[in-house]
Write a structure and sequence with these properties.
It contains 13 helices and no strands. By secondary structure, it is mainly α. It has one domain. The longest helix has 27 residues. The radius of gyration is 19 Å and the shape is globular.
Length: 255
């Protein structure tokens, strides 16, 4: 895989550049939408839920912003990754190349977009008088795992989407449901102990909770939390690779 990446690194760079440019093509604000879109979503949620859930909670603004930005990254990466084979069908018909480059380029583009949106986080941390702490270097760990988790899920979804176009609608519904199960604008302590245990099964919430522990409380999560995130990532990535490898030779006949 590393040799393949070196061989096709120029093509991968061009794909990422194309994905990033096309996302904001023909828009007046261009790349500004990377920041403006999650900011608008965040503003709406703050207006609705600030008094309901965050009245007595310190740094509720940053608490919710971590959830909004993290979930937006997950949703954008996996949704665009799901459509990557179909979107690049023309290239796949003309050129023989590793097709996994397409979901990879979508995920790299989404990761760059996420890092840009983190500018919002820095601004609101300053407004909320939340000082940076040395433990923030640990945020690299969940970021890397989150990238590969999204890539593995993208490989699964993209492979299924080639054969079953209904996957996009089912995944859209799933994303809507998952959004309300990630404690984005509410706190887990409102749930019963059994419900909190169910919440911890959600891998997306695990990544969000890791970020909140480090940014809000300056605490590095336990070794168990690290291993759980690693386990989810390895499992999803392995499933993605297996499903992709079993079906990659059939894609050309269905696109």
């Amino acid at each position: 895989m590393i040799k393949t990446l070196k061989k096709y690194r120029y093509l991968l760079a061009r794909l990422v550049q194309r994905d990033f440019i096309q996302k904001y093509k023909k828009t007046s604000l261009g790349i500004i939408w990377s920041v403006l879109s999650p900011l608008c979503e965040f503003a709406v949620l703050m207006f609705i839920f600030k008094n309901m859930f965050g009245r007595d909670m310190p740094h509720f603004t940053v608490y919710m912003l971590i959830g909004v930005l993290s979930y937006s990254y997950y949703s954008n990466a996996t949704t665009s990754g799901m459509q990557s084979f179909l979107f690049n069908a023309g290239i796949m018909h003309k050129i023989k190349l590793p097709t996994w480059l397409f979901p990879l380029s979508k995920n790299i583009s989404a990761a760059i977009n996420f890092l840009i949106t983190c500018i919002i986080m820095v601004v609101f941390m300053f407004i909320d008088q939340l000082a940076p702490n040395l433990n923030m270097v640990w945020l690299l760990y969940p970021f890397v795992l989150f990238f590969f988790f999204n890539l593995g899920l993208s490989l699964i979804l993209a492979s299924l989407y080639v054969f079953f176009k209904d996957v996009q609608y089912l995944y859209h519904i799933f994303n809507k449901l998952l959004y309300f199960c990630c404690a984005i604008f509410w706190t887990p302590d409102r749930l019963s102990e059994e419900s909190q245990k169910l919440l911890m099964i959600n891998p997306v919430y695990g990544f969000i909770d890791y970020g909140r522990s480090v940014i809000l409380y300056g605490e590095v999560p336990s070794m168990e939390a690290h291993l759980i995130l690693l386990g989810y990532t390895v499992l999803v990535m392995l499933l993605g690779v297996v499903i992709y490898r079993c079906n990659r030779n059939k894609f050309i006949f269905y696109l």
